[in-house]
Amino acid sequence: MDYLEVSNLSAFYSKRQVLFDVGLEIKTGEWVSIVGANGSGKTTLLKCLAGWDIKNHGEYSDGTKKIALVQRRNTISLVPTPSDLPDYLKGRELIDIIIREKQGKINPKWDEICNALDSDIWLNNEISSLSWGTKKKLCLGIGLCVKPDFLFLDESFDGLDAAASFRTRQMLLQLCHEEKIGILSASHSWESVFAYSDEIYFLQEGRIVRHLGKGEFKETKQQAKDMEKIIVTAFGN
Question: Each residue of 71-89: b (16+ CB within 10 Å) or e?
Answer without folding.
Answer: ebeebbbbbbebeebeeee
